[in-house]
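Checked the freezer inventory, then went back to the computational side. Two predictions to log before the end of the day. The first one is the construct we discussed on Monday; recording sequence and tokens without edits.
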Amino acid sequence: MKILRIAFCILACLCLAASILLGIFFGILWFLVAIAAAALFALCMFFCKKRSEPAEAPPAAGYFENEEHREEK
């Protein structure tokens, strides 16, 4: 999954860079198409990142967090 994240990041950057040239030479429509492609690749990158990271387990209660073992003053 890490290789997919890197590939999607590179594709998003390339689409973003190409969008400027496409907008200058071919018009606003091609600029918006390239921006939409960059956004799609960025979303794919974040989706792969979310799927590859394990869910965090809640922290275990320590000695001082447990009510039964707390000293009363």
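The second is the one RB wanted added to the comparison set:
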Amino acid sequence: MTLTLMAIGMVIMAGTLMLIAGLMIWMAIRVAKVSAEIEELVTYTRTTVVRIDGIARTVEAGTQLVRQTLTPSLVRFGALVTGVKKGFEIFLNGTSS
């Protein structure tokens, strides 16, 4: 009978060890899955940052192009406005200040 109890105890211990081993395997698989998800998020974030940088560079280049295109026109427009003001002053006062 003592041998039977020892055998039952060993079976229970073996079952417990198998359960623990199974849980450890499950935890290792879960850690691997979470690690893969984190790597995916990091890759997505890097890709998004690269896209945003590209968009920012494109917008900056477009802004520079608009400035280069409009600046001469604005200078000419400013000169035109100054000339019109002087013309009105001469028309109203007979002289320009």
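For RB: The radius of gyration is 40 Å. The chain has a mean pLDDT of 85. Let me know if you want it refolded.
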